[in-house]
Protein: Ribosomal protein S2
Amino acid sequence: MILRNVAIRHGRKALSAPLRKSFLRTLTNDTISAETHSVERSIENQLKQTHSIEANINQLHLTDSFVPPTLASEASEAVLSNHEHKRHLKKRTGKLGSVVEKHYEPQQLVLNPPRPEDVTLELLMASQSHLGHATSLWNPANQRYIFGIRQGVHIISLEETAAHLRRAAKVVEGVAYHGGLILFVGTRAGQTSCVVKAAEMAKGCHLFEKWIPGSITNGDQILVKCNIKVVDKDDVDISSGYTKKLEEWKALKPDLVVCLNPLENYIMLHECGLNNIPTIGVIDTDADPTWVTYPIPANDDSLRCVQVIAGVLGRAGQSGQAKRLEAAAKGQVTWQPPEGLGSPEPDKKTQREASETNSLIDPRGTLDPRMSLNALTPEAQIAKPNPIIREEIPGEL
Structure:
């Protein structure tokens, strides 16, 4: 009650007191009129802007150049005459000018790689095979392959590249002709397609992932899950007669290794050297040519250059395989089987039929007269197969 009386008393005093000037200003209409004038001015400015935009659009004369669409049957004579004139000019001038016959198609180097005899200096130049590294990164052992210096970069001699590439192609062709196993290695990004294609043409193996150290020196442990098959001189699989021997056979080693990036695969090249396996490698100006047996001085950083080299070597392997099969068709065998392979083991069915045939023959070496000659099966009359066979690993190593 005391608080309520105090509030009423003070409220009456506040109402009876005279008003201040600040309250009088808020109760006047000056501020309201000023705000209304500012709003009207902003509206007028927006209207002026819209009118100016419409005037600019009208100056473009878009409506004057617009032509309404017509039906095909209502084509004007001007359109027909212009079309006839265009056809006439195209007929008269269509055969003029130059025609670009040879042009670069990236997929052709993989799908249809060049042959060794198709290698030219122009092809190597277009593939950027002549570009080396900076002079500060060079290896002095590559001095004989360097043509000169251009803007601080070593230039590789294309004549040396062509000569060494043809020599490597001869080596690949000879190994394929004598039934050797060729391994193509390229572990850089973008080299997968050309490596697989080259191995497919040469009927070899390919590797486009990281090399596992010890795959050659300790291959019995690392490559234990790799499949091994035995083929005859005509590449026909005859592994059924060597089942027991293949289970105990050691891991195969390649007869030739083609490395497209030796800098990243130095461990593999070292293992090949320990096992006397010849190697072919693309040697840039910053690499050591003594790492490989047959160096090819070229730009290993150019994907197009690597595709050309892999395609040429793959074509050489394909040529060697074709010559080997052609010689085998004539009865000439260009290779020898590995030691300890021996003749194929006959299966159980053949052994049973052979025992039944032997039971029909009396000790004097003549057939039992009670049995006809039809009892002899064709398998018993066939001589032993040719023991000359070859081994290879399909797919990846």
Observations:
- Residues 30-59 form the longest helix (30 residues).
- The CA atoms of residues 8 and 14 lie 10 Å apart.
- Confidence is low (pLDDT under 50) at residues 21-27, 365-397.
